[in-house]
Amino acid sequence: MFAAAGRAAGIAAGVLADAVFGDPRRGHPVALFGSGAAALEHRLYRDDRTAGVRHTAALLSSVALLGAVAEWAGRRRGPLAEAACVATATFVALGGTSLCRTGGQMVGLLEAGDVEGARRLLPSLCGRDPSVLDEAGLTRAALESIAENTSDAHVGPLVWAALGGVPAVLVYRAANTLDAMIGNRSPRYLRFGWAAARFDDVVNLPAARLTGLLTLVCAPAVGGSPGAAARAWRRDARKHPSPNAGVAEATFAGALGVRLGGPTQYAHELEIRPTLGDGRTPAVGDLARAVRLSRAVQVAAAAVAVSAACRTGRPASPRR
């Protein structure tokens, strides 16, 4: 009982810390992991899947071991230390507050007509080539990123913190970071990044579906339709090349009454994405609504995670 409550309290404290502070600008552990992953890649890179499997397994198993040791050490020091360990790991893994802050900055730039400023900001949200995007393209790219990263940067960490504690949430965040680094379809990473991309797909399956459900629930908060979100999910999500991003983007499109998808230019290729939703082309006002919808989903996900942690946390050991 006490251990489960400690995990729940730790998750709640981590969410509160993220809401207050957002991502640290310097010395973020995720950035340190990225630097280590890049250094290991320099040593292990080969243009084949086997090398990519070794690279991914080495990094994620190291993070899992670090998380397990940290949780064990916190547990030995008592419930407060264990809760603090969960809180720290959850805070490190969450990125929802920074996501919405960046989305709000994008709204402000586009409302002011500062297309060049919006182009400079877009890489903070996604990996598309901003130089080829006009206001409409920037709006669509930012909205799709807000939808996808509501799942990846917020709901996903909370799901794994609730289910598996410190090791699980740290491995999830490391997998998500590694996928962003090498999980793309560029010539360099098509084979080497295969394992990272597939592992990220697997660990994001529950988070994406929870994001879809919570988007349905929260749609009325931004004047949206749960029914339209459900129809877009059922009809369009499976068309997306990602089994998880498709759920988040389709439900956001339906909830907001907009149409997403279409030509999507990355540095390494042009993708023709399927159409998600059957509404209008998104405007800047719709992007502002997407940011509010993301915040609502984040709050709902935190409530679900804390409730789940109370039921799934490690039972307390009986005292002798």
TrEMBL record:
Pfam families: CobD_Cbib. The keyword Ligase applies. It comes from the Bacteria. GO terms for molecular function: ABC-type vitamin B12 transporter activity; ligase activity; threonine-phosphate decarboxylase activity. The keyword Ligase applies. Its main location: membrane. Converts cobyric acid to cobinamide by the addition of aminopropanol on the F carboxylic group. This is Cobalamin biosynthesis protein CobD. It comes from Mycolicibacterium chubuense (strain NBB4). The lineage of its organism: Bacteria, Bacillati, Actinomycetota, Actinomycetes, Mycobacteriales.
